[in-house]
Amino acid sequence: MELRHLRYFVAVAAHGSFNRAAEILHLTQPALSRQVKDLEEELDVPLLVRGQNTLKLTEAGELFYEEAREVIARADEAVQRVRGEARSETLRVGYAPSMTAGVMPAALEKFQSATPRELRRLQPVLVMPEAHLLAKLKRIPPVRLRNLPLIGLAKGNYPEYVPHVRGMLKPFRVLPRFVSLVNDGISTLFTELEAHHAAAILTKGIISIMPRTLVARPFAPMLPSALVMIGLPALRPNPHAETFARMLLEEVRRQEGRKAAVK
Fold first, then answer.
1. For residue 175, is pLDDT > 90?
2. Model-level pTM?
3. Which partner from 57, 202, 208, 262 sits 20 to 30 angstroms from 160, CA to CA?
4. List of residues 6+ apart from 182 with CB closer than 8 A
């Protein structure tokens, strides 16, 4: 198995199409299909379900996709360090899918020159119905999530959610068991929690909009916090964007100061 095989598979999985991936990789579709098939044969496990006009990842494919992305990212970072290139940074964006459908992916792809600033860090919590077995605990040990039914956010509108959750739980040797992944947003997720009597890993900021029938519990030991960033153009600074970013930072500090005073 070579690194290029991982790149081929990741491209196909990300675009959901051999034709589209082949165009981006500058390969013919039959050649790319053969390379991915060779990878499946080497692993001795199917990674893709090939339909007439559809292409879906198997459960093993979903897992291998996340692992392959991590391997490729580490390899690219190693090359950059050896070459003395600037360290890459990750920009995480929160948005309302219903208002940005079809716009956000293209905007993120074109968003190159930016100077991100840290807005705040949010601590992960476990959200569940108040009658849930784990709701009796004041703090949740991450190992208690092993084999626990979870509701999550789907890749369509939240591409980083599942990989991020898997990454947080990996040090505890816990593989999250998602029984449902929702694309419509947090309101639908809340409904799914009640319907499945399941739990979800979200961040502390969600508590203020949760229904009263749900509760949130922190983890102990704590899971890595989620970093919220602001991206501002570096080449052509916009004074209005700078003002808005400053106001956001001031509001965050004000709210955090108020919470500290209450404690």
1. yes
2. 0.53
3. 208
4. 151, 152, 153, 154, 188, 189, 192
